[in-house]
Design brief:
2 domains; Rossmann fold; 5 strands; five-stranded parallel sheet; alpha/beta; Arc Repressor Mutant, subunit A; 11 helices; elongated
Length: 208
């Protein structure tokens, strides 16, 4: 299996590179700190099977990089390897086209297993991330803590839009409601979550 590593932390990058170079049937000729560097290197080594891709990178972010890599090399699989475990980063990466999502505290042997899963059309996802994905699609579980059990379905939609950085007018346009309706829901969200600002509500939403 030919893999590439895009990770700006030198020690982590070197550790991953050394590990996979020591395993038979694995080849790692590209280990770089940015998506831009990866796109330059892959021109000379186009037959990459899987990319281990960080999110917080110099220049283009990993999530932005997914679009570029998939557009130019649609057969390459991408596994995010990151510290971010909040729903926004997880869903942004998966919506962009990531094929897996592993946290950086994942043991090397488990990362290796995840790479092999890709060959079998699997989707390697860290257990904590998988739980968040499941809870997101299960309203009863999603809302049962930190005051979320009191939020209505519409209030959750407004709160999710807030977490995407949308202003009230943009939220209204997205949800096809008036801006006054958004403000009404926002006041209820603040009251139920016991916060007094958009930032406070979003923080509580992302860490729940």
């Amino acid at each position: 299996m030919k893999i590439a590593i895009v990770e700006d932390h030198r020690i982590i990058r070197n550790g991953l590179e050394l590990y996979f170079k020591s395993i038979p049937d694995f080849n790692c000729d590209i280990a770089v700190e940015s998506v831009e560097d990866f796109l330059k290197c892959i021109v000379n080594s186009p037959e990459i099977d899987v990319v281990l891709l960080d999110i917080n990178l110099p220049g283009m972010t990993g999530i932005e990089g997914i679009h570029h890599i998939k557009h130019q090399y649609p057969n390459i699989s991408i596994i995010m390897l990151t510290i971010y475990k909040d729903e926004k980063h997880v869903f942004d990466a998966l919506k962009a086209g990531a094929d897996g999502y592993l946290l950086k505290n994942t043991p090397l042997k488990t990362i290796k297993k995840g790479l092999l899963q890709i060959l079998e059309e699997g989707a390697p996802i860290s257990p904590l991330v998988a739980k968040k994905v499941i809870n997101f699609f299960n309203p009863q579980k999603r809302n049962k803590k930190n005051g979320f059990e009191e939020l209505t379905a519409r209030e959750i939609e407004v709160l999710h839009a807030m977490s995407e950085g949308l202003a009230a007018k943009n939220i209204a346009d997205k949800l096809f409601v008036s801006i006054d309706t958004v403000r009404f829901h926002t006041k209820n969200i603040y009251k139920k979550l016991q916060v007094n600002s958009k930032l406070g509500a979003v923080k509580k939403y992302l860490i729940r």
